[in-house]
Amino acid sequence: MALAILSSGGDAPGMNPAIKKFVDYAYKKNQKTYFIYDGLEGLIDNTIKEATHSDVAGIVHEGGTIIRSSRSKRFFEYEYRQQAYQNLQSHGITGLVVLGGDGTFRAMERFSSEFDVNFVGIPSTIDNDIYGTEYCLGVDTALNVIRDALDKIRDTASSFSRAFLVEVMGRDCGYLAIVSAMISGAEVCVIPEKEFEGELLSKRLRDEIKNGRRYVLAIIAEGTKSTSKIHQWLQEDVGLETRVSILGHIQRGGSPTVYDRLMAFDFTIVAVDHLLKKDNANKIVVYQKGEFKLLEIQEVVSNKYLLPQHYLNAINLLD
Ligand code: F6P
């Protein structure tokens, strides 16, 4: 019996601690381990190599993923999935841990409905947008990177009478934006899940500016695709000279926080333990109310992650 691990889609801090735990824990359980390099592309191209302890020495503090990642278009074609299956068979791989996000899990669902594969997915994406789990690997580190950037931007904002508009990642999900707005004390937050009430807000901000407010910090989720519209709104309706910062890929990098490392270890242990049971795997490990659970892959990919209501409510309370 041999177990393998791959990372796919956007890399997330916490993938390396998960990879280290995978090798160390599987070894304790007397399992041979393999790395599948370059995500689903590597599964197709057979870049599969046996993993050793020295491969995972000294990686726990590193962001990214030592086994690299990809966004594979080829995997959505049957002939490549067939090739991928043959590669798993040829190495005698009986269980697979998949670190990835929504797109990866969709691909794995297709794969597992056609071939006799046995995998467990670990939600790993800074977007925190996977159905059924309150937490995905990498989110805490990404939020800390954003917090650091916002604290610095606020230093400059408070030295000028200006508005600062900061665009954060998150694909179609506003999680990173709303949490960053809450913890940085931003006055404005625009996310895809909630209609932007520009008129009401500009009136309130103009009143506050009359009463002494000097600057405004606004956070916008990339998924709204309205950064230039909000820029214009801040300048024209609110009436403040505005600078825009798009944080971009720095949000995906950096040494995983303590929380991301601990979560990586726990997610991985649950995943490996499940693969070693005889029952059919093809599940996703999720974290709900302080506990780890396993959900069917079909349930995870056929439902949409919804922001908790108290976060949506918080948008109206920003000040
Ligand atoms: O899913 C993670 C993420 O960083 C999203 O927040 C972002 O929209 C996307 O990946 C960017 O993808 P890429 O690195 O392929 O440009």
Description:
The chain has 319 residues and is an alpha/beta fold. The chain folds into 2 domains: 2-138 and 256-301, Rossmann fold; 139-252, Rossmann fold, CATH 3.40.50.460. Helices cover 43% and strands 18% of the residues. It has 11 helices and 11 strands. It has helices at residues 15-28, 39-45, 78-90, 102-114, 139-159, 175-184, 198-210, 227-238, 258-276, 297-301, 309-317; strands at residues 2-7, 32-36, 48-50, 93-100, 119-123, 163-168, 188-190, 216-221, 242-246, 283-288, 291-296. The strands form 2 sheets. Strands 3-2-1-4-5-10-11 form a 7-stranded mixed beta sheet, sandwiched between helices. Helix 2 (39-45) packs across helix 3. The protein starts with a strand and ends with a helix. The model has no long low-confidence stretch (mean pLDDT 96). Bound molecules: 6-O-phosphono-beta-D-fructofuranose (F6P).
List the helices and strands and how they pair.
Elements lengths: L1 E6 L7 H14 L3 E5 L2 H7 L2 E3 L27 H13 L2 E8 L1 H13 L4 E5 L15 H21 L3 E6 L6 H10 L3 E3 L7 H13 L5 E6 L5 H12 L3 E5 L11 H19 L6 E6 L2 E6 H5 L7 H9 L2
Parallel strand pairs: 1-2, 1-4, 4-5, 5-10, 6-8, 6-9, 7-8
Antiparallel strand pairs: 2-3, 10-11
Helix pairs in contact: 1-9, 2-3, 5-6, 6-11, 7-8
The structure holds 6-O-phosphono-beta-D-fructofuranose.
